[in-house]
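The instructor's notes for this session suggest beginning with a concrete chain rather than abstract definitions. Hand out the sequence below and ask the class to guess, before any prediction is shown, which regions might be ordered.
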Amino acid sequence: MSENEEDTISRAAAPAAGEPAASPGQIQGGAGPRLRLRAALAVGAVLMAFVALTGRLARLQIVEGSAYGRLADRQQILSRQLAAQRGNIYDCQGRLLATSVRRYSIYADPKAVRNPDSTAAALARVLDLPASMLKARFGRDSCFAWVKRQVTDAKAEAVRNMRLPGIYMRREHKRLYPQGKLGAHVIGFTDVDGRGLGGIESRMDALLRGRPGMESVLCDGGRRAIRSPQDSVQKAPFNGYDVFLTIDAYVQNIAEQELAAAAERHAPQCATAIVMDVRDGSVLAMASWPMFDPQAPGRGPVAAQRNVAVSDAYEPGSAFKPIPVSVALENGVTAPDARFDCHQGAWQVGRRTLHDVHPYGVLTVSDIICYSSNIGAAQVSMALGLDRLCRGVRSFGFGSPTGIALPGETGGIVRPLKGWGQYSVVSVAFGQELAVTGLSMTRAFAAFANEGKLLQPRIIKAVRHSHTKEVIYTAGEPVVLGRPISPQTALLVLQMMRRVVEEGTGQKAQDKEYPLAGKTGTAQLLREDGRGYGNRYLSTFVAVGPVPDCRIAVLVSLKAPAKNGYYGGTVAAPVVHRIAVRTLKYLQVPPALPEPTAHTQVALGESD
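After discussion, reveal the predicted structure:
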């Protein structure tokens, strides 16, 4: 360094003239307060942050802790319903009619499916589904999509072995009907979720389905269970109750076989057959045609699922004649041997002309039933009068549902007395101007065979728990709803109907071992446009037997038979005969010899 440079530096470092030189102590004293201030501010900021953080943590833990806990549970705990085992349905002998089996259902988490194209193709081959449909489901913005419900064990195992990401399974119950189509209209069916949609399955659904359980399992971020469900059940399901019907599967099979054969021969629009135990009102068989498969109800027309016996109301025609005649006998306005002029088949009543199929002269009341005279029946009803006729018809339960434990029952139509016209007393005499169901007709005829007692029809025999076998309901003693006629009147009408089979319009129901008593009916059906009666008919035969100690009542009705006749005596009576005889033999009812009749048989053509 040069001498000039040293002088310059010395002058710069020296104090200006008149200024005292700063000592080292003065320099250190100026910097200290500033450092302490900065340090205090920093510590204060840290303390404030700590206090704020502590407050926030306290709020999260104390004030909002339960809410965040529930949020965490929703994210980490998967709660799902455990399906209850649906109860079984049995016939009166304990034969299994409906049951449930475990099946796997396959579902997907679309967000977890890694390769939708290959996954859809692989599943389509095993499950017989369109790959395009599966691919569309995997493309949804959701966490759940069904692939296929209730697959077989073999297909479930095949899918499980694929180990496809995003594809999972869950156990469900599938309804099975071991007897196939037998009793389908009575038993009903369920949907894929196990809800009853028809028949007993629907009416008794609350008892059959039980109550579902609940389980909560720990799951990962993909909502996949990572803990064994057996260790996590919170509430076990309560399985459904078993239901025992009064239906006898063997008798039901007889009724369905004979009804199907009649449908094949006569090609009706629909048909029904009912077998009832006259002693307690138990329905042993209730068949409707056409049939449907309860395992796959969607494969046939919806109309085939209709239980014709309880849901269809119709004008019964001449099959109704024993009802007003019995009421007239009960009220003492006529007697079995009372005589009426039937005017050789044509009789003018006001502006209306009544006709018989065959011309008759003077007939007794018993003859009127035997040969089914409209003119004779009208005169009996006119002697009875409108008011007593209306009350008598209602006393047999017509116009109201029977109350049987089946869905879709209609009560038929019996208008209030003020709605009856001047010709109603005539029309009702031979089954017009009112509508009845097959079940209500069967019950009414059962009263003739049961000393005039009108019983409550029943189809439920017992209900019990499926596991504990605890019985919570039994049908018990027969329920007598009333006695529209006395035992004496019931016996008189039974004897008249016995003549129908022996020498009248129901001769095709004759049987030497099991004598029957019944009544035929051939009712004109209304035209489809509702404008009067057309050329279609309802063919009916109702019978009880064996006479005199009757055990069963049988009804067969075919709507609009299209070939091989349409009279009730031709179309329905032979079917009732076959059902009744086969049923009585199965029930091991001893054959009864028919009582000899004192009446002279009249040669007849076909009639109603």
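Then share the key points. Confidence is low (pLDDT under 50) at residues 1-6, 598-605. The longest helix spans residues 24-63.
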